[in-house]
Amino acid sequence: MSRGSSAGFDRHIQIFSPEGRLYQVEYAFKAINQGGTTSIGVRGVDTAVVITQKKVPDKLLDPASVTHIFKITEGTGCVMTGMVADSRAKVKRARLEAARFQQDYNYEIPVDMLSKRMADLAQVKTQKAWVRPLGCGMILIAYDGEKGPQVYKNDPAGYYCGYKATSLGVKQIEANNYLEKKIRKKPSWNHTETIEVAITALQHVLAVDFKSSEIEIGVVSKDNPKFRVLTEEEVDERLTAVAERD
Amino acid sequence: MTSIGTGYDLTAAQFSPDGRVFQIEYAAKAVENSGTVVAIRGKDGVVFGVEKLVTSKLHESSSNQRIFTVDKHIGVAVAGMIADSRQLITHAREEASNYLFTYDQPIPLKQLVDRVSSLLHHYTLHHHLRPFGCSVIFGSHEPEGPKLFMAEPSGVSWGYHACAIGKAKQAAKTELEKMKTEDMTCDELVKEVAKIIYTVHDEVKDKSFELELSWVGEVTNGQHKLVPDEIKEEAEKYAKESLRESDSEDED
Question: DSSP string spanning B38-86?
Fold first, then answer.
């Protein structure tokens, strides 16, 4: 890899390399994989789902305290992938931004606006030399009154986009390939089908069959536009349905 | 993949090529050099134990405090750079005081841990700051039951049934995993915590140590206190006897 005639600091702080790259931002993307987990977001006809692995590495940990799915507002939730402390900071900020919007405009922030705001904040960190980007990615879901279920993804570079389905983490390339194949058939997934697609995708790329204690699922749907995390029983129901289909 | 971060480890505002922030990892190493801290959440409370290594016979015993109280109901045990931890304790006390003033009730433990974790995390973002070199264990007894959390220099915090940090944390964790801590009462746990500290203490590398024990639970009516001397002595006696039974080395 040619370094051109840089001063050698382009890998160390937030300055451009001679090829026009920001190495520190690229390294921040690598940090998302450090957690060793994969997360997926899927949008159906009337439902949006986020799913992630629940890894409890230490037997002494209280599993009830381990979660990577967070509620931002009544109708918006997210799954965080990457450095845990950075994730929590980002969620805190998202909650603050959403609350401010609610106070100023008296209605809940639309998820695309929230995503845009978080992206703008992330961009600021890519332009200052003395602050590092947050090493985490955020997949937001909400049921928008006008547009239906929405899935938005934010990354450390300050990029954001709406998706039919997307993923983050160690196996994101494989997961995205799998999801692309599924989407190509232009399906119309109902509530349970959307959840099952997300489960199947995750199981497929990780080559495991999950137990309900090993995954977390967050949903919003037309019938239930409030963001909520599925209980273990509900996760079990979906897992059983997926297993029986195969 | 380099595990020494040469060149990418100068500030916390720097990622390495494989996406790690080495300053945070180095801060965690500072914790590993400190005396062991063990905390267990039982049925009716939380017990803390700290292995305070005595570096000089001239030190007055019980002068280097490692366990602190935040408000009345929260106990905090620290490992790592003790000077850094004092900053955290001051901050925690301010947060608890603000919460009490705003909401007219004592701060729930999760809220306090959240706020301290945010501070820890903040110091891992900026070029002109270094991360705190200490891990902090929080415990309290709330109406819903006893709670135990640990926050690391990275700002990550989780809830625990039992945790150990410091020099001998691996050995202590092995002992902890053998126990059924959810069913044990504070009286039983005090003895077990003392036993674990005595068991994992390295006689060869560190000469003498002082044990600091504290608890918070039904037995203290929800207030965090140092374990009374008589109970502490009994616990230490139990610990020393268990050691004698398990091997034939003398205790000094």
Answer: EEEE-SSEEEEEEEEEE--TTSPTT-S--EEEETTTEEEEEEE-HHHHH
